[in-house]
Write a structure and sequence with these properties.
elongated; binds adenosine monophosphate; single chain; 14 helices; Rossmann fold; 32% helix
Amino acid sequence: MVGPVFFRTGPILYTIFFDFERGSTMLNKKSVDDINVKGKKVLVRCDFNVPLIDGKITDENRLIAALPTIQKLVKDGGKVILCSHLGKPKGEPKPELSLAPVAARLTDLLGQEVKFAKDDNVVGDNAKAAVAAMKEGDVILIENTRYRVEETKNTDNFSEELASLCDVFVNDAFGTAHRAHCSNVGVTKYVDTSVVGYLMQKEIDFLGNAVNNPERPFVAILGGSKVSSKISVIENLLDKVDTLIIGGGMAYTFMKALGEEVGKSLLEEDYLDYAKNMIDKAKEKGVNLLIPIDTVVGKDFAADTEFKTVGRGEIEADWEGMDIGEKTQKLYADAVKDAKTVVWNGPMGVFEFPNFAHGTNAVAKALSEINATTIIGGGDSAAAVNQLGYGDKMTHISTGGGASLEFLEGKELPGVVAANDK
Ligand code: AMP
């Protein structure tokens, strides 16, 4: 069944048409709009995995992204218990990875107290007492779920402890949706009502629609370091896109597969046949597969290394491909000009070094100028788009790097599947 889905981002109301039968295990989930939380204890799994330097949050986008769901639950009279992981404490309490700074910042952002229930065992005496004392509309935050070694193992005991805090569970953490952990999957075994939050819903709607029912022409841009980590994405997307653009370190394996020398560039010898197959498959399917026609090469892998631009097949033995060249930037900008849907995952070069960030910047700029649904996979491409100030020009920037990649691979995300169906 194909039906309309409506959702709002700021002042704009989007309507997209969704094929509900394809991939319906992920696309037809109950959300916070489908439940009544008045007076109920609502455990909300958020993604508060924010960068911290000396206890200060250096990028609060993930906190801001979580606000709509929290505000909705507060307004509806829920007793809102927030939880999240932060960093990799590897199953033990690490004070530098405490969520205390998040509670303080959320208090400012929400304009109401977010009480921090600090327990080294996460669901401890403080959390239990804080929950018992909650009134409708109150918000508390419990400690980093990865302080518990069971969290990433999805074991029953910690899942049940988390569930014991609540009547209703809301998963709004897209960033961990591709993992089955206690706080996003295990907990749902012990709670009758499990739904997705607004952020999760938005991710599912945009990524799901782009992959399964894109307005055409549909262009995918893939970059990043390795072909091996994007194999399933390439395969899945080759069945769906009109144009596939390849950049970043993985482009050199494609070049080599075409018989070109790539010098010291990143090369995955084991994937040469695979790259060749993909080139042939693209031809068979009538997909326009683009690889760089010029390359910025560096003497060494360093920010201040000597560099120059060379044409296709001209990378010399002691040089290394670091970025796409200017002609490629133009080729790729032209290739997206008439697109109606563009999905982008992975930088075009070693964008961490300013001399080799121009290709990534050019793609971000090109996407900001077109009249299309533009979806940026999380991780590096999302960071690049935000850093360059193009964030508000994109239709959707995913909050989950790994999760959005798995979505593009056509996989089911356990964190989404676990929510109740409509
Ligand atoms: P990924 O996590 O696979 O999306 O890869 C992102 C990383 O790819 C970034 O850290 C980039 O620096 C790196 N990258 C992009 N282009 C190149 C290149 N030409 N050579 C080496 N690394 C690259």
